Amino acid sequence: MPLVSMRQLLDEAAKGGYGVGAFNVNDMEQIQAIMAAAKETKSPVIVQASRGARQFAEDLYLFKLIQAAAELNPEIPIAMHQDHGNSFETCKSAILLGYTSVMMDGSLKSDGKTPSTFEENVEVTKKVVDFAHERGVTVEGEIGVLGGVEDGHGAGGSGLEHITDPDQAVEFAERTGVDALAIAIGTSHGAYKFSKKPDGSVLKMDVLIAIHKRLPNTHLVMHGSSSVPKDLQDIINKYGGKLKETWGVPVEEIQLGIRNGVRKVNVDTDNRLAITGAIRKVFAETPEKFDPRDYLKPAREAMAKVVALRMTQFGQAGHAGDYAPIDIKEIAKGYADGTLSTHPLVAAK
Ligand code: G3H
Ligand code: 13P
Ligand code: ZN
């Protein structure tokens, strides 16, 4: 099966009332882990690569691996997504390579650090939408800024500094025509999101619900959605790691989000934790081993276990065979003739 439009995946998720995990990849083992989990749970999948990932793996290696995943798993719809594109050029290069979806993160300037103005964000996102939709490619935009810094990307600080304003979210969706909207509700990237189990003072699910009420048909995206489970932290620390005590986003809060318009759930850190814990365990218990397969195999299995669990918890499990993928050229026609709407439904306050 060719790579599928993320818009189609999210439209189907909205019809079915479930969320779809978007899992970051940097190498073959991570892609294989996601596909093993998708096969086991019969899930449609979103695979995403950050700018750092594209650089680390080299564009062509990574993209050919995704194509291999699609060829080997014809029964699984796969959307390939650029995570946190920092400029029009980054998104354009992903689109020309064959990605079926891009995120234009115009909430930050192209340095990936400094918050941009609302007008700058609208302008660059709209430019990406026009280029992408002509080619049938999906666009995710972001309004509000997440906390934390990952691989040089992010504004830093806590997640509470630039929470999304629902009125701005409405104006942004109307003026850009994005297919999916990432919002800032207090989460941040990485392992250190919260210093205790988050409550409504730091994780603003009320803001998410307010945005969903105003934009009932818009696919919302939750970034920084790793749950940072204690058991994964413990494995790392048991085998010589030094993670400080920390909390992520509880799965039940994500499920509340899914009941309120969240269709794409971004998870990277939980998989990083699973991989690192598994590798540390092999190194600590069998220090005589030196064949990479001896630790990459358990690492891949540990990640597949986390991904399969999230697929079940987000509700995408069992939905891989629900629909026939629409060719990306047909998707482009749909944007052009208006059958694929880019005008959000806006409810009164
Ligand atoms: O956006 C955050 C993801 O976890 C990707 O992180 O930029 O270090 O690859 P990265
Ligand atoms: P986590 O760091 O919580 O896994 O978030 C990943 C993410 O938002 C990727 O865009
Ligand atoms: Zn993110």
Walkthrough of the structure:
With 349 residues, the protein is α/β, with parallel strands linked by helices. The protein contains 13 helices and eight strands. It has helices spanning 6-16, 28-41, 51-57, 59-72, 88-97, 118-134, 166-176, 205-214, 230-238, 251-258, 269-285, 292-314, 328-337, and strands at 20-24, 45-49, 78-85, 101-104, 138-143, 180-183, 219-222, 262-267. Residues 24, 50, 52-53, 83-84, 150-151, 153, 189, 268 line the site of glyceraldehyde-3-phosphate.
SSE map:
Elements: H1 6-16, E1 20-24, H2 28-41, E2 45-49, H3 51-57, H4 59-72, E3 78-85, H5 88-97, E4 101-104, H6 118-134, E5 138-143, H7 166-176, E6 180-183, H8 205-214, E7 219-222, H9 230-238, H10 251-258, E8 262-267, H11 269-285, H12 292-314, H13 328-337
Parallel strand pairs: 1-2, 1-8, 2-3, 3-4, 4-5, 5-6, 6-7, 7-8
Helix pairs in contact: 2-4, 2-12, 3-4, 5-6, 6-7, 7-8, 9-11, 11-12
Overall mean confidence score, pLDDT = 95
Largest beta sheet, briefly?
A: 8 strands, parallel, barrel
The tally of strands reads: 8
* Outline: globular
Features:
alpha/beta, eight-stranded parallel beta barrel, binds 1,3-dihydroxyacetonephosphate, single chain, binds zinc ion, 46% helix, 349 residues, 8 strands, binds glyceraldehyde-3-phosphate
